[in-house]
Amino acid sequence: MDLAKEILENINDPIFALDSEGIIIDLNPTASSMLGLSLGDSASQVLGQTTPLLSQILQQLPEIPPDEPEITIGTGEAQRQFSLSISPLTDTSSQSISNIVVLHEITMQPHLQKVAGKRSANLSTLLEVSNAISSTLQLEEMVPIVAEQWVRALGVSGCTLSHLDRDADAVITWLGWDSSDVDRSTIPGTVYQLDAYPATRYVLESLTPLTVYTKDPDSDPAEVAFMQKEGTASLLMVPLVAGDQVIGLVELYDSKDIEFSEADIHFCVTMAHQVAIAIQNAMRYKELERHLSEQTALRELGQLITSSLDLDTILTILAEELSIMLDATSAYIVSYDHLANISCVRAEYFSSAANEKERVSDINKKFVEVVTDRLNTGEVSQYHIDDPDLTELEREHLREFDGQSVLEIPVQIKDQTIAYAEIWDSRQKRVFTPRELELCQDIARQAAVAMQNAQLFELAQQEISEREKVEEALRHQAFHDPLTGLPNRALFTEYLEHAIARANRDENYIFAVLFIDLDRFKNINDTRGHDAGDKFLIEVADRIKTCVRSVDTVARMGGDEFVCLLYSVDSVIQAISIAQRIQDSLSVPHDLDGYDLKTSASIGVVTNSSVYRTHEEYLRDADIAMRRAKARGKAGIEVFDKTMREHVLYQVSVENDLQKAIEA
User: Fold this and answer.
1) What is the spatial distance between Cα 290 and Cα 150, in angstroms, rounded to a whole number?
2) What is the DSSP pairing of strand 595-597 with strand 15-19?
3) What is the pLDDT of residues 508-532, one digit of tens each?
4) What whole-number distance in Å separates Cα of residue 605 and Cα of residue 641?
């Protein structure tokens, strides 16, 4: 409300403010004198005060027709006629909190009436602008309202507000407002270099308003040429100054030759001062919003990197954030091998403004040879297509993909460039600000962390894989025969125990164990050597596996002994049939280095029975049956029965007795 307060104190018309209940809450010195109210030191001191004249005004307010806003005050010869202006004042939520009432006496000389009317219009405009700039901190909302009010107050064609970019030595248009076909204000972001417009530079550096007329021979030729091109005949430029800082420029223009009076200029300066403060506050607020948004994005990226090892997804999000935060048309993150001097696009993001040529994944492949030296130094580099330091090869690359500006940010781990982020803008030549460069470097550090984490994870996975391979090999060695690859005694025993447990649960389940011992295998070792014997054992193992079913287990117990575990057989007859297939297969000669080798086998068979409790008992009785077959002339098949065990026990008893007799 600083602007409104300044107006109240310096305007000669009676002005007072009414709250939503119609109670007067503030007034200026003119109104205080006319109404007979004390001004006091604060608005609260006028609350509840009333006078006959004030009561007369308040009674008439609700009855005043909107098309003839006039009011009569006093009686008889003291009667005075006023025109009335009521402006609502709203808060930030657009709710009306009070009304500003301005009285303009019309019982005066005609020439004074015109001045008073102009003053009244200016006052109304200032109040509207005060309301607009106090109710929002968004430039997009504030600037068009301010521009429109300026146009209406001065009766010109249009108004443009521009901000000063000191780094670019230019003014850049914000939004504006135009009431005619002449419009140079509705395209935001238009850049005007100050070197091309000396008159504009003069206004900004001297802080002095300036009028320019195309018909005036003394006017700045550059400004006149531009005005003629735009169909403008008259122009008023006023600097936007907040404190000691130049914010930008206001330009009021018209297609006709109009004279800007000293009162017009004074009004514009007063308004520009307050608008500049409001714009400065809005810019600071926007900068704060941007900073908070960037910090939030960086924090979220950090959380993503620490919670995920999906490198492609992380880098794609980083590329998107780079493009959005820098308002670029596209962004790429490219892995880089400095030794091989090759690169590969790992992630890319294209804004809606990106052109078709830059939407190419190999946009960087040709360029990496050019930028190698810069990448290896780790330094940030930026350039645009008209940069005088650009090589012809670099400039040709930009032309090929319709690029205007490029920013390159190396991604480093321990001073080693492993990748780089490349940001493109295909719309305009631009110079990235220090803030933007710092932001890019923050994101590049995030990318470095993500890529390092991915590398460490990949190494860890490789180590785990190698360890698992070693562990698997050790497990295989522990439970398999190193010569034939068949399960060994330990693994066979485990399988046999599972079969025993199942048979204990299901009385109808039948399994069988075959104990196989090769006949005359020692002759092969003695005549052909142990290497030949080993090769022959491998062949025997393969033949036995082809004779059993895929669900059965074949194991080597050691030497020339093998065992088979036949799961879920119909009866002992099926087990004998499988044993016979093994005999038939082994009887076929095997050619080994020009020699035909063949063998037979003695096979003992035992099926599950309730008398057995452990795997040792099964293997014991299968071995007894095999030895009975070998004793009967080899190449035989014997099914175990209890008389075999009794016979073995009898033989052991006799041998023990003989041994004792000899020792005696």
Assistant:
1) 30
2) unpaired
3) 999 999 999 999 888 888 888 889 8
4) 10
